[in-house]
Design goal:
mainly beta, 10-stranded mixed sheet, 4-stranded antiparallel sheet, globular
Length: 369
């Protein structure tokens, strides 16, 4: 009888161990599987620039700030690539390149960019600074939607592009061009995290109350909605200013800015937004981090109203610790997350390091071997 009892207890124990962890639990622990960048500059990559009417080495300077998506059982990463190593930070031309991997760590890169400034109706927004800092999502029917920054050396503008294959993109222009009688067209905007959900093992865009939604912003986080994924309407307060739903915190890792990261994700604990916090350079800085450091935290919003904060991390779960995260264009140290995918029962978080390289962190349930 005792033997049967012990056998029953063992079955219950192992059955409990095999219960699949929730998304919240799966995303509670990340580690860096390699101590080197997974993507970096490549001076051999050339591309004919129709605006300059010359061949350029479009990845000669730096490769960083990646978006990520799953297609045909492979991970595709779209990275910001800069051309001129002699130019100062912010004074180069950026183009978005694409790379593919079967394990999430080792990538093969394609020779030409997939999104870049060209002689089109959006040249005034994209040139000469280029197309920067992509975030990518897809709809239920497989349309890829890219949110990126158009940079003309004057005003950064959040812009949208569509694709059916990841390689050929249709630019739709600045996201806020039409909103409120063009009020925000010439205002600085960037960093869009559209709200997604899990459908099986696939991440797809979510509709809430019949609309698409995104968190966006750099020095504070706000919201916007859309019905067609390219005309977006920011939320404003009673005075007509952008509605601030999350702001910086003195003496925390996000004391200087809190910038949206990968697409937001609906979880069992709320809508998770992974975001990038910058430590201040003055007295409000977090003393446990070097001043000016970019690190990564999480916040969870109430899915009922999208604005109420339920949980917000006091400390970053990802911060610069490796040599390539503190050497490059931005030596204060950077882990800047923009891409998150679920692949082969693990979560892969892709991030830019020191504005010069691409790194990866991998999450699996902490009790796993």
């Amino acid at each position: 009888m005792k033997q049967r009892y012990r056998y029953l207890i063992a079955i219950l124990f192992f059955s409990g161990c095999q219960t699949k962890p929730t998304i919240f639990e799966q995303l509670s622990y990340f580690n860096k599987p390699v101590n080197y960048p997974i993507l970096s500059r490549d001076s051999s990559a050339i591309f004919f620039d129709s605006l300059k009417n010359e061949t350029v080495r479009w990845k000669k300077a730096d490769v960083f700030n990646p978006a990520a998506i799953i297609k045909n059982d492979s991970i595709y990463v779209l990275s910001r690539c800069e051309d001129n190593p002699g130019a100062v930070l912010g004074g180069r031309t950026s183009r978005i390149g694409i790379s593919v991997s079967l394990d999430g760590i080792h990538f093969n890169s394609f020779n030409e960019p997939v999104l870049y400034p060209s002689k089109d109706s959006f040249q005034q927004f994209d040139y000469p600074g280029g197309c920067e800092d992509p975030r990518i999502v897809q709809t239920e029917d497989g349309l890829y939607v890219l949110a990126y920054t158009s940079w003309n050396y004057k005003v950064p503008r959040l812009s949208i592009a569509f694709s059916k294959d990841l390689f050929h993109w249709e630019k739709k222009g600045p996201a806020f061009a039409k909103a409120y009688n063009h009020r925000f067209l010439d205002s600085a905007s960037k960093s869009a995290s559209m709200i997604t959900r899990m459908e099986g093992n696939k991440i797809v865009l979510a509709k809430i109350r019949g609309r698409y939604w995104m968190y966006w912003g750099e020095y504070f986080v706000t919201l916007a909605w859309s019905e067609n994924l390219y005309d977006w309407y920011p939320l404003v307060d009673s005075s007509g200013f952008l509605k601030k739903i999350m702001q910086t915190r003195p003496n925390h890792f996000d004391s200087d800015l809190d910038e949206c990261g990968p697409p937001a994700l609906m979880t069992d604990r709320g809508i998770m937004l992974i975001y990038n916090g910058k430590n201040a350079n003055g007295k409000e800085a977090d003393p446990s981090l070097p001043k000016g450091t970019y690190s990564v935290g999480r916040v969870f919003f109430d899915p009922k109203d999208l604005e109420t904060i339920l949980i917000r991390s006091d400390d970053p779960f990802l911060k610069p610790t490796l040599p390539h995260e503190i050497s490059g264009q931005y030596t204060a140290g950077t882990t800047f997350a923009e891409g998150l995918v679920y692949y082969k029962e693990k979560w892969f978080l892709y991030y830019g390091t020191a504005d010069s390289f691409v790194g990866v962190a991998v999450s699996k349930y902490k009790s796993e071997p």
